[in-house]
Amino acid sequence: MLPYNRSKEKQSGPCLELAYGHHTGIDTYRCIFSVNLQINDKIMKKKMGFILLATALMGLTSCVTTQVASIQPVNEEDIAVFTTTKPAGEYTELKYIQAEGSIFHKPEKLLQKLRQRAKEEGADAIIDVRYGYQFWWPYVEGTAIKY
């Protein structure tokens, strides 16, 4: 057996005494108490990490933003945009079109891209226009028509 050395207790805690086989009831209590404190400290750190993560997620999901885009043509040459109604009279559906943007694009810019693409396709208007997101990337879509 190794001799009892009190200086090693300061280096590694009271449980070192039990490893060397020299202990009393008080030493056993000190060892168990020390181990319980270490376990409780680890559990507390995990709980605090979970609480901080949950708080951060609640803060991120509680934000609400509103965005508005005018669908009225700016000038007579602009393509007409219809979201919920259809134009009166006969028309022919040309193509489904979609404009995508980055997280920094506003609905106005996306609608401008959609109108530009419809003009390239020879359309007079766009019907069934819808805004949406693929993950956090916005897009606007519709059907290009010709009167």
Description:
The protein has four helices and four strands. The protein is of the alpha+beta class and 147 residues long. The protein folds into two domains: 56 residues; 67 residues, Translation Initiation Factor IF3, CATH 3.30.110.70. A four-stranded mixed sheet has the order 1-3-4-2. The radius of gyration is 35 Å and the shape is rod-shaped. It starts with 5 loop residues before the first helix and ends with a strand.
Helix content: 40-55%
Note the main sheet: 4 strands, mixed
Number of domains: 2
The termini sit apart by: 101 Å
> Secondary-structure element sequence?
HHHEEHEE
Strand order of the largest sheet: 1-3-4-2
CATH architecture descriptor name of the largest domain: 2-Layer Sandwich
By CATH, the superfamily of the largest domain comes out as Hypothetical protein apc22750. Chain B
Strand content: 15-25%
Q: How many individual β-strands?
A: 4
Tell the overall outline.
Answer: rod-shaped
